[in-house]
UniProtKB/TrEMBL annotation:
Coiled-coil segments on the chain, per record: none
The protein's name in its UniProt record: Putative phloem protein
InterPro entries documented for this protein: PP2-like (IPR025886), PP2-like/Lectin (IPR052147)
Single Gene Ontology MF annotation: carbohydrate binding
Amino acid sequence: MSFVAFQFLCMQKIWSEKKSSYKCIMLYPRWFDVTWGFPPHWLWNCYEETSDENIEVAKLMSVCWLNVRGQFKMSELSSGVVYEIAYIVKLTKEGFGWEFPVTLKLKVPEGREQKRQYSLLEKPIGEWIELIGGSFQAKEGETREVSFDIIEHGGHWKSGLILKGIIIRPKH
């Protein structure tokens, strides 16, 4: 891949739903703070989406401390709408170390935090899946940030998780 092509990779995509005209956001892995987010712990690969966009995914090669976090401004969303956040991930057949569940955290500006746990051992291999991280209501005039995390600090090595991104969309 040439350096020029790398410069045009997406970090985020914002659009409006056709039926409701509510805003949606897709945040790609380069938007996140990934602990140990460099080779040999993580690989960053490009692939072409069905929309002909080049996106970059992050593939976990080997870490004992999974910690991926990010944030976005609530002001980028449609006020008054209840949103949900979903992590889009895939497990590879060579993956290991998922005996303990991953924890998803969502913290909204007023300080309320939601946590959900998912056992990845129960998820299909080789398919994109969504892990719902929680929901919140976008408030008019709110300029602070919503933060999110996916963590697993069990102290054992794990591998084989591909992170495509996080989607923030109206909850239906």
